Amino acid sequence: MFEEEVILNAIKYRRSIFPASYTDQEIADETIMEILKSANYAPNHKLTQPWRFTVFKENGLVSLANEMARLYKEQTNPAQFVQKKYESIREKITQSAVVITIQIKYSGLIPQWEEVAAIGCSVQNLWLAAYAKGIGGYWSTPGTIRYLRSFLSLEEEEECLGLFYLGYHQEKTIEGFRKPIDERVKWVKKS
């Protein structure tokens, strides 16, 4: 049986934890697979299961960091190029224990927005599973991800929807700030 308070607190206290806060502790492959198995249980219409993941770890992180930095330089107008941002792109990736690219494979069976929504649910499951294991993470969607097709060997019906950074950390657990829900809820009751 599940414990209601545990689930509700995981949802309430899960936060974005950024690579600058990560420690040097490695994440075991088995732990990564457990987290991805949780992502795999996301709801999805007609069981299209559109999520795909590529896990970058160890030297793979260096390859991804180099590619993302190269894409930033290549896709940025020279007058807009900032060397510090170029270096920051590489640093964020290499400070992480793991970076997972989040990919979608459109089935053509249902509207694309439904499959994108399923990806969001899958990433939330991934995030909650990481939180439960004391691992911080965050989902980043830089504009350059659209140029990763060749690097990730994506098929025609696939697309990269972001990078998910992971790492152990020592940040304090804090409740996320949200405006009161009653400002966003309308009730309709029979009279």
From TrEMBL:
Boundaries of every Nitroreductase domain copy: 11-168
Species, as recorded: Olivibacter ginsenosidimutans
Recorded family membership: Belongs to the nitroreductase family.
InterPro entries: NAD(P)H_nitroreductase, Nitroreductase, Nitroreductase-like, YdjA-like
Claim: Nucleus is one of the keywords in the record: no
Keywords, comma-separated and alphabetical: Flavoprotein, FMN, NAD, NADP, Oxidoreductase
Native organism taxonomy: Bacteria, Pseudomonadati, Bacteroidota, Sphingobacteriia, Sphingobacteriales
Listed name of the protein: Nitroreductase domain-containing protein
Cofactor(s) needed for function: FMN
